[in-house]
Amino acid sequence: MADLSAFPITRRWPAKHSDRLQLYSLNTPNGVKVSIMLEETGLPYEAHLVDITENESHDDAFLSLNPNGKIPAILDPDGPGGQPLGLFESGAILIYLGEKTGQFLPADPARRYETIQWVMFQMGGIGPMFGQVGFFNKFAGKDFEDKRPRDRYVAEAKRLLGVLDRRLEGRDWIMGDDYTIADIATLGWVRNLITFYGARELVDYDALKNVPAWLDRGLARPAVQRGLEIPKKA
């Protein structure tokens, strides 16, 4: 069995199976990227719920693994060279798991970097902008009398959806025939925008030509269905 005792996070969230990859997360759009990837690859793992609504991601034990205080994070007992590796940032974790398993990240260097660029598109654009739409449409920002901030982020969300829609023209997946970490990174955010954030009409989602069918294909995958619920609050 791997010895993970050097990692303080394992004292707050003990590992029952220390030979398995440890996932510290919640089923938010960022969190489910990693749980979906783990379900898709079949890599053995143990999920620990970090309740961000109770500020648990700012617990000292969690900060010892991710000083940025955000989920998800992982601790792989079998990292490079067989040594344990802690890792945070969902995009970095997806790339790591793709390389570790040889799945959902093309081996061809050109296609590999093309895939990573679309992961970065999600990380730098879709995630932050869709999250702002959620704040101004569903959470505290919805009560702001001035609707200009909301409208600014709605306009940017529509633009980003348009970029994705054009990319998907004639393609089943972002990289064409191959389902990759680019899709895994993006599916949960598009789903959240039109469901939990209640912005379907605001962003004219049903006017898109290709994104809705792509989302339906992704949500039909059994591993995606499982990953969207892991780890979920009781």
UniProtKB/TrEMBL annotation:
Pfam family, one: GST_C
Domain GST N-terminal as annotated: residue spans: 18-105
Residue span(s) of domain GST C-terminal: 108-234
Taxonomic superkingdom: Bacteria
Protein's name according to its UniProt entry: GST-like protein
Organism whose genome encodes this protein: Allosphingosinicella indica
